[in-house]
Fold this sequence. Notes:
The protein is of the alpha/beta class. It folds into 2 domains: about 5-285, UDP-N-acetylmuramoyl-L-alanine:D-glutamate ligase (3-Layer(aba) Sandwich); about 290-425, Protein-Tyrosine Phosphatase, Chain A.
Amino acid sequence: xxxxxxxxxxxxxxxxxxxxxxxxxxxxxxxxxxxxxxxxxxxxxxxxxxxxxxxxxxxxxxxxxxxxxxxxxxxxxxxxxxxxxxxxxxxxxxxxxxxxxxxxxxxxxxxxxxxxxxxxxxxxxxxxxxxxxxxxxxxxxxxxxxxxxxxxxxxxxxxxxxxxxxxxxxxxxxxxxxxxxxxxxxxxxxxxxxxxxxxxxxxxxxxxxxxxxxxxxxxxxxxxxxxxxxxxxxxxxxxxxxxxxxxxxxxxxxxxxxxxxxxxxxxxxxxxxxxxxxxxxxxxxxxxxxxxxxxxxxxxxxxxxxxxxxxxxxxxxxxxxxxxxxxxxxxxxxxxxxxxxxxxxxxxxxxxxxxxxxxxxxxxxxxxxxxxxxxxxxxxxxxxxxxxxxxxxxxxxxxxxxxxxxxxxxxxxxxxxxxxxxxxxxxxxxxx
Length: 432
């Protein structure tokens, strides 16, 4: 086994410790590394959906401004190295090995870190070593007790809220809001897109107690769609009209409004940002696996991938479906879902729009058995088949869709990641 593979295997062994919410282990790790996070300027991203898209938009604008920007995100689609980007470039395998060795050298065996705590410590150390001017840090789960919450942000973004990870975060939306609001820091401006009145009130009351200025979607940050598919953005400082973005979906102007709020604050904090940097960034932003059209030869079914892994993400996908489908029939859906997700609700949302369904799964231990998915399908679901091998499922879907149809691969980012590799979107695959 190659040294890099040995490094990853040792990291993935930490998954046996599961998910452990709390900051003490991460604080101790970072203290032993010399507290690399203390002098690191950050943007902290939390929320149920849209974190990655907002982060990618901010990253793209900062790149246009010539700012050296780091981006830490999870999970990865295909390669572990996707989790750490600087100026849009993934970390090298050699750097992963060097960082992992550095963090292992300070691990206290009496307090073994979880996988996410360890790889988050690697992120802070990497960005400090590389001298990034801003690090975009995406939460892994929740916020208040998430390992990333040790960062010291210039601004904080909470994208939206929905029921998720209820076994860890609670069963009520107010529970989720409490956990997400835990990322709000004293005196640090908050940009948010929380729309549910009770949850919004909780978030904004938390911000008020911590004397954090609040810039809300729909109030200080607004967008307007145009008939031609472009949109306008209106912030406190910038008014941008006739915009387009490289990302597909009706929800992207919402994400862009939140990115605008973050960029305005960052400009006030001294980063050399101008409105045109955002305009150009939106045209160049790339965020794979989220309403992504895969290149296909002319005369074949169109193929789309979307990692809709929870009900809010499924609703966002459905809102854009007519636009991306463009009248193509039949729609053949390949579905693979993680066993710990809201399978019944997810399938009830997704399946009615399909003409045919193929239940499959990625090669991943958390993936639900396709037979279980078939049994959880709602009454009246479209005709379906079971194909556990994802590669064979995609071939079958393309055959069923014919020349005039559309294939949609969805249900999980893990499913989409493996599909991208099978379709030729990467030479390596190290999902665990």
